[in-house]
Amino acid sequence: MNFEEHAAKPLLHRAGIPTPKGGLAHSASDAREIADGLGKVVVKAQVPTGKRGKAGGIRSADTPSEAFDAAQAIIEMEIAGYEVTSVWVEERLASTAEFYAAVLNDAPSRSPMVIFSFEGGMDIEEVAASMPDRLRRVVVDIRHGFGQQEALALLDGLPGAHREKEGSPGIDKEALADILARLYRAFRDNDAELLEINPLAQLADASFAALDCKFVLDDSAIVRRRDLAEHGRSEQLTGLEARAREAGLRYIELSGDIGVIANGAGLTMTTMDVIARHGGEPANFLEIGGDSYIHARPALELLLDNPRVRSLVVNFCGAFARTDVMTQGIVEAWKALGPSLPIFFCVHGTGSKEARAMLREDLGIEPFETMDEAIIAAIAGAKS
Amino acid sequence: MIVRASERVLIQGITGRQGTFWTERMQAYGTRIVAGVNPKKAGTVHCGVPVYANAGQAMRETGFEVSVLFIPALGVKAAAVDAIEAGCKRLVILTEHVPVHDVMELLAAAKANDACVVGPNTAGLVTPGECFTGFMPAFERDIFRPGSIGVISRSGSLGTLICLNLVQAGFGESAFVGIGGDPIIGTTTLDALRILDADPGTQAVALVGEIGGTMEEDAAEYIAGMKKPVVAFIAGGASPPGKKMGHAGAIVIGNRGSHASKRKALEAARAVVIQSPSDIGPAMREAIG
Question: Which percentage of chain A shows pLDDT scores above 70?
Fold first, then answer.
């Protein structure tokens, strides 16, 4: 789950990392009011994506009325497919240098990783590509943690500090290490997948402030971070996707006309791949594996409500999910709704004997021996 | 890991609905289940084996070698650490949606104690004709037969389909290693390849990957040096980027984790990459020569 800047920064604040004062505005007049107490401000679009600046979603304002104009211009903009509905208005701090700091889950080391660079304020992928020696990555022993000492070791000898602007104070490494240790603490305390500060600004008085923050909450941890998750940005879902979510189904709408129901993520993706391979286009990803295999009926109802769907492929290979239970759900829904679309089955694995018998007896349908055959028939069925 | 019929197996969470259902099937197939754990039902007998309060007690009484966890997501870390601290060296974690920080913690505990973890979010392991640990349809004769192909899969259902297609083509499996669909797992593609490469019963490997992460790319260098042929299928070529495709680990971010990147790396390592699971039989026959 992604968090916008306004929802991510309080995590830093609670961890003792300074952030500029600010407020969230849903209208231009709100923005003016917030700016009134802050002096010179920055007005920033709240969308869960990077590149806001390039898209014109971040503007400076010297007065409350300029803040009004800036907010007016930004609200209702569309950035990377997201409509802007709010702006974050915060005091504009003058930085003497900008750094990058992040903690994330690193799959190869199966550990948290702290990343830091004195080259902040820009896309970190670019820094990694063009100046790899300016970026330091440290794998953390999660049982030991990452404190002041580890942070100082990370900073030791890291090049790049020469980019400080003229007249800027020297870098207080103790204070910087303290920020990194606090960032790691906040990462752990909030079940983060990613917690990133870019830029981490050094101010004229040599102190630091997080000018932006990105937080991604581990979806599997939402159940134990309910209060936190309320502040996260829910994904943009289509009507059918939202209905699927309610029913506990994993459904993603695509642009084709072949409806797909399969069990298990791997098999469902593969069904889409094989449809594409034979020249068809899948209308959706919909898997009813795992605990949701008992929800075949609402799954089918969902697909039938997608007006683009012209034929259906049901591809089951039972392991944990029993194909007889899944097939029964499909058969019941099919009988109840009496759709006129063609439907093609391939059923193997746990419970498949019973499932095949059910299809023959209840629907008069003979399942195909291979998924390729079922898919080729479905593509032909969609054209007729 | 490859589990053998002689190995003593503990089931943590044996008394639950799924624990019971699959324990009975594992026992019927030949898995040597010696005990279960449920602190609330300690002292009872379930599925014909004693139930203990914790893994430590089960270890003292039975000396189990492998633990299979049928434990709800938020209880997995404590249960796994319990087994690891009891001296268990091999764990199979089936549970989906275990918080990633918990996974990292339990894997760190495993590493510190030289224990090997398969999963989380795996359908488990099958040694055809011997035993299985997890929830795989090992007992379906048209899917699992003793043979010489080692199968590695991130997905239970797709791995099952590949096994079916192998058996239909006249092959059998030496071992099925379900490694799991999570982004951070104990046994990676590379780890599983090493195990099958060293297994004298395995003649060739069927590698079933999917989009997301870099595990397949990370295994490529090792595959290039392997004598045993590798035939691979990577699911997700037709999936849109930026979306989690059912599995938490199946997401393409930028070019990272894409089908094209995995295919390129595997083909450069001289693995055969097939376009449909149906092609596995002919491709395997040709690869073995």
Answer: 97
- Which of B101, B168, B247 should one mutate to test binding to chain A, selecting the residue with the greatest count of A CBs within 10 A? B101
Q: Which residues of A touch B28 (CB under 8 A)?
A: none
The residue whose two tokens read 């769907």 is: A309
The Cα B284–Cα B171 span in angstroms is: 9
CA distance B21 to A174: 57
Confidence (pTM): 0.93
Q: Are residues B246 and A282, on separate chains, in Cβ contact within 8 Å?
A: no
Closest residue by Cα to residue B258 from B241, B276, B277, B233: B241
Cα atoms in the 13 Å half-sphere on the side-chain side of A132: 1
**Taking CB atoms and an 8 Å cutoff, what residues of chain B touch A326?**
none
For residues A210 and A132, the answer to whether their CB atoms sit within 8 Å is no
Yes or no, beta carbons of B74 and A110 under 8 Å apart = no
- Residue span(s) of chain B under CATH 3.40.50.261 come to 140-288
Q: Chain B contact for A287, CB < 8 A?
A: yes
| B197 to B165, B174, B200: CA distances (angstroms) | 22, 11, 8
Please report the DSSP string for chain B in residue order: ----TTSEEEEETTTSHHHHHHHHHHHHHT-EEEEEE-GGGTT-EETTEEEESSHHHHHHHH---EEEE---GGGHHHHHHHHHHTT--EEEE--S---HHHHHHHHHHHHHTT-EEE-SS--EEEETTTEEEES--TT-TTT--EEEEEEEES-HHHHHHHHHHHHHTT--EEEEEE--SSSS-SS-HHHHHHHHHH-TT-SEEEEEEESSSSHHHHHHHHHHT-SS-EEEEEE-TTSPTTS--SSTT---BTTBT-HHHHHHHHHHTT-EE-SSGGGHHHHHHHHH-
User: Which band of pLDDT confidence, cut at 50, 70 and 90, is reported for residue A163?
Assistant: low
Domain B8-118 CATH class label: alpha beta
Q: What number is the ipTM of this complex?
A: 0.93
Rounded to whole angstroms, the Cα distance separating B9 from B27 reads 10
Q: Give the pLDDT confidence of A29-82 residue by residue, as tens digits.
A: 999 999 998 999 999 999 887 778 888 999 999 999 999 999 999 998 998 888
CB B87 within 8 A of CB B61: no
pLDDT in tens, B158-215: 999 999 999 999 999 999 999 999 999 999 999 999 999 999 999 999 999 999 999 9
Two tokens at A107? 């799959």
Could you tell me if A165 lies within 8 Å of chain B, comparing CB atoms?
no
Q: For domain B140-288, is the CATH number 3.40.50.261?
A: yes
* Residue of B161, B183, B213 with shortest CB distance to A267: B161
Contact, A342 vs A374, CB < 8 A? no
Answer whether A317 sits within 8 Å of B153, measured CB to CB.
no
Residue ranges, CATH 3.40.50.720, chain B: 8-118
Task: Tell me how far apart the alpha carbons of residues B219 and A129 are, in angstroms, rounded to a whole number.
Answer: 23
Burial B134-148 (b: 16+ CB within 10 A, else e): bbbbbebeebbbebb
